[in-house]
Amino acid sequence: MDWSQLSLIAALVLFLVLAAECSNGWSDAPVGTSAAVASGVLTSSQALRVTAVGNFLGVLAGVLLGAAVAKTIGTGIVRPEMVSISSIGIAMGTTIAWAGIALVLGLPVSKTHSLLAALAGIGFAQGGFDALTPASGNWRDSGWVAVGIGMFLAIVCGSAIAWFAASVVTKLGWHEKVTDQWWRRLQLCTVWGVSSGHGFNDGLKYAGIFTLVLYKAGAIPEFHVLPEVIALCAVVMGLGTLLGGWRIHQRLDGMVNQQEQAGSLKKPFRPYMGVCAESTSAFFIWQTGWLGIPMSTNHGVVSSMAGAKSAEGKVHTSSIIRIVWGWVVTYVFCFIIANLLAASML
Fold first, then answer.
1. Which residues of 16-52 are buried (b: 16+ CB within 10 A; e: fewer)?
2. What is the pLDDT of residues 260-319, one digit of tens each?
3. DSSP string, 234-298
């Protein structure tokens, strides 16, 4: 890698990429441990420490297991030749701003989809619809197809399988036959699967953007995610996780632990539900990461928590509605802001 090829603008954009990776840590990563907080297995502060270490190890796993997600984000969402380095900086600034807003509001918004929307915004501004389509003309080569698959697996399959798993546990009576203490011990294992999976899938997305900037600046001859880039992103995401996220825990705790109707019997989110939710979401997060599918940990965890709770009790409907609206507004806000700012550069 030839660092001398980096201009001041490219260096500043690389800094913004790392800042966006850091903001992922404080605004999205806490979702991965929210099930353990909701079940009472971990306190919020303990969960953030688990998240920080898990995310660091998960991103670092990309050195050994490959960074397929990074390639999908770096080359499959917008055509690299149709966006400028400066516009990539705009996309990063947009995701950082939205992460700050989400943190203040306590909304568990998807940083994956804020990144995708911002990239779509700059791509459409600079290259029109063609910038969002693969150069080959074959949609099977498009990263957007992988995005759609990821959303289906996270929301539909995640909620359904977590509900099924929790239903089997209750039908067989395992939620009573196996002591709560053992379910808590098991959840201490499954929570690590989700937190490290978040790093392996979400954290590597920004490694892909970092690599894209290096490639466009001429610092590397071809798009290839370097081990040192992965290691740098691992450190930044781990540190960023320690900066906040308590309000995200509170929001998801309210989704599964608030009483839906006055006077109804309250059934709390229990550790066995957390195990079902986390094992389901961890499986999909790791598998999609391995296959290069940019799945949202936020979508996966929220959906699986709702599915597991629905097997015995009700989720808090108004909380679900606020979360889903947060997902929708993420796309609208990030696309429009990034698009307008990128268009002003032309």
1. bbbbbbbbbbbbbbbbbbbbbbbbbbbebeebbebbb
2. 444 445 678 999 999 999 999 999 999 999 999 999 998 999 999 999 999 987 887 877
3. HHHHHHHHTT--HHHHHHHHHHHHS-SSTTSPP----HHHHHHHHHHHHHHHHHHHHHT----HH
pLDDT in tens, 80-127: 999 999 999 999 999 999 988 877 776 667 889 999 999 999 999 999
Give, in order, the Cα–Cα distances in Å from 219 to each of 16, 19, 197, 203, 222.
17, 20, 30, 22, 9
Q: What angle do CA 279, 52, 77 make, to 5 degrees?
A: 75
Q: How far apart are CA 153 and CA 270, in angstroms?
A: 24
d(CA 32, CA 195): 5
- Classify 26 as helix, strand or coil: helix
Pull the structure tokens for residue 179.
Answer: 């002591």
The amino acid at 70? A
d(CA 35, CA 326): 19
How many Å is the maximal CA-CA distance in the chain? Answer: 68
Of 231, 228, 229, 227, which is closest to residue 239 (Cα–Cα)?
A: 231
Q: Can you tell me which residue has the tokens 């996966």? A: 300
- The closest alpha carbon to 193, from 40, 42, 25, 50, belongs to 50
Mean pLDDT (whole number) for 34-40: 90
d(CA 287, CA 295): 10
Instruction: Check if the beta carbon of residue 191 is closer than 8 Å to that of residue 36.
Output: yes
Alpha helices (H) along the chain: 8-27, 34-38, 44-60, 62-65, 68-75, 85-105, 111-127, 143-151, 158-171, 174-177, 180-198, 204-217, 227-241, 246-257, 271-291, 297-310, 317-343
DSSP label at 139?
G
CA distance 31 to 289: 17
Q: What span, in angstroms and rounded, lies between the C-alpha atoms of 207 and 199?
A: 11
**What's the CA gap between 332 and 329, in Å, rounded?**
5
